[in-house]
Design goal:
Blueprint lengths: L1 H16 L1 H22 L11 H25 L9
């Protein structure tokens, strides 16, 4: 079930936002999932609080998603040319 949802969301997300945004968003989701699993100690792991580098990595990935989405939107809706007086 989760695999089918993943594929469906990835295909629709790639069609709407572009492959770059979709790929980075998936990587961000995996990073956040790893931070959650590691901090809770799930699956027999020793619980470890995420450090600053892990949070910085997640923040940079989030910034990449935002910038790529804005770039995609700007490419689809270019600003009208300025009129000179």
């Amino acid at each position: 079930m989760l695999g089918a949802a993943y594929v469906t969301l990835n295909v629709t997300g790639a069609a709407r936002y572009g492959v770059g945004v979709s790929t980075v968003a998936v990587t961000l989701g995996q990073m956040l999932g790893a931070l959650l699993l590691g901090s809770r100690g799930w699956f027999g792991q020793t619980a470890q609080a995420p450090g600053a580098p892990a949070w910085l990595s997640a923040a940079l990935l989030l910034g990449a998603v935002v910038l790529l989405a804005q770039d995609r939107q700007a490419a689809e809706n270019p600003a009208p040319p300025k009129q000179e007086d």
